[in-house]
């Protein structure tokens, strides 16, 4: 007598909601989404980094110009000439939309000092390289001593 093998039992089918979860966990297309999110964020960070570098350069330039203006003012023989010399020495700053130079000559006497404050308004277009609206103001102050043995004009 030949025996017939019992019918093989098939595993039960998973419920439909289980199949939907498997489809949601599929990784196809995730790389495109990651790139679509990462590229704009990377570009924004790069622009921010460039703007921060240019802002740092502008800070250094304004401080250097204030120091040069104070030095030029300290070499002048009169308070009026000191103000003129300080203003002329700031003419090299090209990135400023507006530039203000304030010269304090109240202690302009042998052994005294002269203080120069330079304020520069920089367009964010200059910092970022494209048409971003707005402006930033950078201020630097520098003081230079006057020589004790130097003659000055009487006021």
Automatic annotation (TrEMBL):
Sorted UniProt keywords: Membrane, Transmembrane, Transmembrane helix
Residues annotated as transmembrane: 35-53
Superkingdom of origin: Bacteria
Protein name: TadE-like protein
